[in-house]
Predict the 3D structure of the following.
Amino acid sequence: DTSLPKAVKIKLDEKDPAVVKLRKPDNEEHGTRVRVFGRVHRERKQKDVIFVTLRDGYGFMQCILTGQLAKSYNAITLTRETSMEIVGEMYALPPGAHAPDNRELHADYFNVPRGWKAPGGEDAITNMVQAKGDPQTLLDRRHLTLRGEVASAVMFVRDAVEFAFHQVYRETRCRKVSPPALVQTQVEGGATLFKFDYYGEQAYLTQSSQLYLETCLPSMGDVYCIEKSFRAEKSLTRRHLSEYTHVEAELDFITFDDLLTHLEQVMCRVLEITMADPIIAKYIKDLNPEFQMPSRPFKRMKYAEAIDWLREHDIPNEEGQPHTFGDDIAEAAERRMTDIINRPIFLTHFPVEIKAFYMQKDKEDPRVTESVDCLMPGVGEIVGGSMRMDDYDELMAAYQREGIDPAPYYWYTDQRKYGSSPHGGYGLGLERFLAWLCKQHTVRDCCLYPRYMGRCTP
Ligand code: 4AD
């Protein structure tokens, strides 16, 4: 109808009263006519009226089709996930009614162009993404399950958290760099390397950007990156991915204690920024109703104390024996301990033998390293970090001890030759942090399209 005022195109979360004028149905004065685009999240057909909850990624809006509009073919056959354009005026909700933002759009026009319609019947989206469906089928249909409220809430939180990390690193004066993903050196042991042919030479997908971050310190000061890391994990667990997002930072001229303080500061500040956004805070509260800001300082526990704790609590090692000094604390034991203690833990001073070659030894007790894992209830380890060996000869001995050929590491070793320094850093698994924050059973639900042993699609 060309006699009607021109409609303003808006996103569904538009709140500006100059644009979205709400009026009561009996008000004489007209509100702004608006035009919205989105997909049918839900629809309810009554005799002469159709209620459509439209979704566009910014918000939800209840739209009402009445009169001739409700009798049209496209309205009668409307299915979930159909894309549509709706034009109309916005009204305040009548008392007692419920709809997003307490308002509804009374349509005077709608359009479902050819090809915008989603199937009904057998192929209806509700049949594709059934909550009780087999997890593998749901993962095959991840492109559709991502449209759901829970999956998309986790993705919104992820977006906010990633942004918060960037903000916090700005505040703490860490500079962002972007190290390569295709490398010829290992960081975290050969067992989890993805190998590939690089123009006739052997190369790997990076396990961590740490070694490259270390090379930036002399010119850039403290640095960080948020990049993908890759691990050929040969087991299926709820916290291991083959490709994950790794938040890593490296700090120069620090002590081990400085490293722990910084780590605690970054994690708490990220949470503070994330929770300061009321929409994101609401998603987190819905996903994880018991969530509470962790109290500082985090509990600090040495590896040796953890071994005693596990013995006292009769939590055995992987062989079913009581834990002894030198054991790698396995995932199950670590999680049980963290769940019982039920607060963030900085587990420190792991033995040299079970940690990576580059870790600095503790001056007071050379059996152990200045290393830290941050453990969170429900997930276990979400951060691994350490001070780095800064002495040239000691590093050469460490390569030898681990059976690593030092030749390809010349650029890393050179950092100990051209002005060495006490430095350290850490890596935080973004999906594990999110699994903890959003109380998700598995890290697979905290990334867009999870990659793990046996899955590289869609
Ligand atoms: O403990 P990791 O192996 O430490 C490093 O890679 C160091 N080089 C990082 C550094 O100091 N810059 O891994 C660090 C974190 C783990 O605590 C975990 O959160 C995550 O990376 N992570 C994984 N997340 C998902 N899937 C996997 N397969 C992961 N492996 C490690």
Remarks:
- The chain is about 30% helix and 25% strand.
- The domain at 139-446 is CATH 3.30.930.10 (BirA Bifunctional Protein; domain 2).
